[in-house]
Amino acid sequence: MSQLRDAAAVETGRPTPTPGLGREPTVRELRRWVRRRQVAARASVSLETLYVLAVTAAIAIALLGSWLRRVLWPAVPVDASAWPATSALLAAAGVALLLTLRRLGPLVLGRSDLAWLLHTPVSRRGLLLPALARALCLAAVAGATLALLAVGRLAPRPTDGAETAAWLAAGAGAGGCAALLATAAQRDPRLGRWLDRMLTVALCALGAVVLLEPAAPATPTIPGPGLLAALTVTAAGAFTAATVRGLRLFPAAALHEPAADVGAYLDSAYVMDPSFTTDLRERRFWRRRTLRSAPLRRGMPVPAQHELRVLRRKLPRLGWLAGAAAVPAMLADGASWMLALALVGGALTSASTTAEATRRDVAQPALLRLLGLPARRVLAVRLLTATALASLWCALALTALALLGGLPPGPWWALGLAFGPVAGVAALRRARIGAINHGLPLIDTPMGAFPPGPLLWLLTGLDLLVPLGLPMLTALFGADSVAGPSWQRVLLQAVLAVGGALGYLWFAADRRRATL
Amino acid sequence: MPSPPVVSARALCVSFGGTPVLRGLDLDLDAGDALCLTGENGVGKSTVLRCVTGLLTPDEGTVRVFGSPPDDSAAFWRRVVTTIENPSWYVGLTVREHVELVRLAGGADPADGCVDELFSALGLTRVGDSAPNQLSSGQRQRLLLAAVLARPGELLVLDEPEQRLDTEGRQVVAGLLRGRLAAGASVLLASHDPAFVAALGCAVLPLHADPGPHADPRPHAGPPSHADPPPHANSPSHASPPSHADALPPALPA
Known about the structure:
Number of helices of chain A: 23
Largest sheet of chain A: 2 strands, antiparallel
Number of helices of chain B: 7
Oligomer: heterodimer
Structural class of chain B: alpha/beta
Strand content of chain B: 15-25%
Strand content of chain A: under 5%
């Protein structure tokens, strides 16, 4: 520490303090000292890197620019009848922003700062100020973007520039307030739990508004944005001052988990391998739960007892999944591909509820060897669980879609049930692939060489889901037609699904071996 | 006619990166016997255990377990229980549920009292409702031993079962293993603790780092010999238990 102190003083041009008598270095000086050594040790940013970044940005704008403009600023606003649902969706996006801030921290220290600076006698406020500034900036930008989305959809044309600017300021101010509220919740776990519950209730209420589409007022009135902007920006400023004052005593315990989680997400993005974030989420889920042993019974297969026990302990998550079955109905007016994506995503998520055991058995088969059970039997039981969950979720989602989304009449619920085994097989296949294989040879294309590992990882599971689920997927893409799915289509889907599941068990799991 | 040995290894040779670890090792283990591999770090104790359980294929030589080469089949693992690998315990299950799951998978009744006795003997009762990742390293070692001892199996292959255990815990584990031996199981283990081996009272096969063929404690079905036995060690042929046997827990149901 004294070495750092001396070095910091040298770097800043100040006289070297006498150990024990001189002043302590500030966090800024320490950071600058560390940064200079990092720059000396690593290669600096080259012109080539800047060129690649600039070209990437230019290509992204050229490819996505017009689409982004349409999304942010459609040519005409929505009908007055769609006001409540659109407003509820925008409000839900705001709640989701606050939930995301809660999930990420929002005060996130780098892992090196956490390890080397958090528990040293440097100013806690100085240490956390950059993190607070980052959180405020990100939340303000997100809030302003949401405000722009709202103005683009709700404001009559032509729009007034000053009013739009006021709305953007109001959105930025509200985003800043959300970041400060999340910071207060990070500091006080009791407030955090209360806030999470309130946000969950708000999301459910907003989802109900989107689904039920209540009648809109005859002439929707927009409040004046100037006052709102002044209020939110003033509130954000006042809360920022109070938060900065309180940073001095911010508890260290509240900083560890966000640093570890965000560090893992960044690592995952850097190595292009999202596989281990799943394990991170599972650990976080179970860490917050108190378990109590319940005796096992003879007569029921061991893997089945394991699955049922985990399912019973994941009831809150099942509740979330049941609520999420309404999401496809909310997207009923959107493009067919969005509907199909929501259904496939929901079905895979439901089927993966108990997939963590498979992931662990693939990564480390010691426990499976200790159990001494054949792989095919274990996989068959787990496939049954995954199938049951996915079938129920798909049936629920398609029923809601048929009732609220205006699908043509037909046995949609049966089609959902028949699709379940396909999602189960795909989920198990995904659970068994493990990490991305970055060791595969590069594939040369006219646009340059690319590593096939991430693409193969992404496609694993979908390679079975798409061909086996064709009857359900084509029915969704043809949902605009007058007639709904026929029973013949349901039968075809059921035959494909059951045949695919049996084939998967036969070819992908050994009858004798004890490892998956 | 004598029954074939439970474990039989002949001329076992294993090298890692050109460095020979095992050279021509022979060993036999009969049903109901125990054999302990000793020696300094890196002489190949765990390597032998890995070869016996089929987790490592030797460069040369043969290994037979219950008369057949070890394989990764469920039938093999129902007869063989090992602590060579540290399991990645399931999330969402408690310590006690893991052990009950293993016992049930082995065909035994998880409510027959064996798990209670094991937990009591190994000091796990207090943490029965915890998740395995909340345990200390010593407690996790006890959990692994509890799971292994709860599993009915004919051959136990244990890699330093005394590691991370306190002195009292080591004596308890030695007593539990003696109970399994008395019930007819065979035990092949590696250990660094002479007192633990003495408490277990088994034959010892010392491995040495120097080149050349290793000694065989009982070459080719001859009578057991105890190469370099630890002080107070007992031969499996000796009927008398260690002097402190009274302090050990009773044998558990297999």
